[in-house]
Design a protein that fits this description.
The protein is about 60% helix and about 0% strand. The chain is mostly helical and about 475 residues long.
Length: about 475
């Protein structure tokens, strides 16, 4: 049984919930001619942009020099995608589209039905155990499909990369999704964690299990240092300062050669051990200790389950904190800082805890990145990494843990899946590599999300505190949709 907001008018029928209170006869007809004209102009604009950017590709000629090779097939496909995509937007989501807000606007302000019956809550209920089950069984499934550990190396490495971005997305979700603080320099904490482990392990010989909490603590310390100067900033000003902070950290790593190695980075970083047992072929190695035949993939599989555990811990801590007073303070700060102050909430401590805890998980992920790669350099922590993590949070739905995980899988694993689709080479040519168009795919995904789902894949969030029964609040009363 759901309750309505006291200032709302409850719908009287199922038609009111679906926007059916606007008679179909009163709706304006679709402007097909205008949609086709708009689609043609968009395709023409795409053609103009494609000629200097996509059409010509430089390749090495027979004499060793560079020659220009035209790619008209790629240009035609790009223009066709823009043309039909613009038609789909006009017919489905435009001002007079079939699913536009203008055509289905209700005459009264209503509230939704029981939140537990909405798609966001239903998806969250079964998606979490499904995600954990699939993640646990992923190495075994790949092994059975590929027929060997060595053959499955590529896909397990891809799984490690996806889970790393899932963990980073969940860490940034604390700052952006829960506290509402736009952070464009999150990669700085990722770098602090990586360099902390690299320096402590190579200089003092400390193991990964000792350096892991230290890296998180140091990253949290830098998060607090970032939080103090930006306590009065919001919106675009906060984004600019955090962006500058990320660039400052990167420039320090490049120029402090005596400590960080500069652009050459740090190499020969000690590998992870199974709680002190190395993954080697020696008598004291992991395989000999447990009676297994030695295989280098044992270390890779252990790294996979290690990042899976770290990601699940991040998710568990975030969900637990969200139900504590500090989590409710974050959400109050996100909705209205002035009202948050009027309620007696210390916004200074609230912001600092958000920055510190989010940075701590970024430090954990950075420490894992260093032990997995065995080599780090400042080039691994540029602004593109921050933009990718932020895009994962925005596309997934700010504040939604399940949405962030789905967006990370789509954005990181998507280009790799496209790479293995053979028919794409028949369309775009043998030299087609989706990674070259990764940013273009990101941009198209962002545009599509802003048109169809501006609040992300999963925009409905479960209330952090429920008194007696669940209540659903109208989307016009809160910033991020239904609470």
């Amino acid at each position: 049984m759901s309750a309505v907001h006291p200032t709302s008018v409850a719908p009287t029928s199922d038609a009111a919930l679906t926007g059916g209170d606007v008679p179909f006869a009163d709706r304006k007809p679709l402007d097909i001619a205008g949609t086709l004209k708009s689609a043609s102009l968009a395709a023409l604009l795409m053609f103009g942009l494609s000629v200097p950017i996509i059409l010509l590709r430089t390749e090495q000629g027979p004499t060793g020099g560079l020659i220009l090779v035209p790619r008209w097939n790629v240009v035609i496909v790009a223009c066709a995608l823009v043309f039909f995509g613009r038609i789909a937007i006009g017919l489905l989501g435009g001002d007079q589209g079939l699913f536009s807000r203008a055509r289905t606007r209700k005459a009264t302000v209503t509230v939704s039905a029981d939140p537990t019956k909405q798609s966001g809550f239903g998806l969250a209920r079964f998606a979490s155990p499904l995600f954990v089950g699939m993640a646990l069984a992923f190495p075994l499934a790949v092994y059975m499909m590929k027929g060997g550990l060595a053959e499955s190396r590529y896909w397990i490495d891809l799984g490690i990369l996806v889970l790393t971005y899932v963990m980073l997305g969940w860490g940034l979700n604390i700052v952006v999704g829960l506290a509402g603080l736009l952070d464009l320099g999150y990669v700085a904490f990722y770098a602090v964690g990586a360099y902390s482990y690299a320096l402590l392990s190579t200089t003092f010989g400390l193991s990964f299990w000792i350096c892991l909490p230290l890296a998180g603590i140091l990253a949290a310390f830098w998060g607090i240092l970032l939080g103090f100067p930006v306590l009065r900033l919001r919106g675009d000003y906060l984004a600019i300062v955090t962006l500058a902070f990320g660039e400052i950290i990167r420039l320090v790593l490049i120029n402090w050669v005596d400590v960080t190695g500069g652009g050459a980075g740090i190499s020969s970083i000690p590998r992870v051990t199974f709680f002190g047992i190395p993954f080697t072929a020696d008598e004291d190695g992991f395989a000999a200790r447990f009676g297994f035949e030695f295989n280098p993939m044992q270390r890779v599989i252990f790294l996979y389950y290690l990042i899976l555990v770290l990601a699940l811990v991040t998710n568990l801590v975030t969900l637990r904190l969200r139900r504590l007073p500090v989590g409710r303070a974050w959400e109050a700060l996100r909705e209205d800082e002035i009202a948050c102050r009027s309620l007696g909430i210390n916004t200074t401590n609230t912001k600092l805890t958000a920055f510190a805890i989010g940075a701590m998980f970024g430090g954990f992920a950075g420490s894992f990145f260093a032990v997995r790669q065995g080599f780090i350099s400042p080039e691994s922590f540029n602004f593109l990494e921050s933009a990718t993590i932020l895009a994962i949070v925005v596309l997934g739905g700010m504040g939604s843990q399940v949405g962030v995980a789905i967006a990370a899988i789509a954005m990181v694993g998507g280009p790799e899946l496209l790479r293995n689709l053979g028919f794409l080479k028949a369309v775009f040519g043998e030299g087609f590599d989706p990674n070259e168009y990764r940013l273009l795919l990101f941009g198209l995904a962002m545009v599509a999300m802003m048109v169809w789902r501006p609040r992300g894949l999963i925009s409905v969030r479960e209330p952090s505190v429920v008194f007696k029964e669940r209540k659903s609040i109208s989307g016009s009363l809160v910033k991020e949709g239904h609470g």
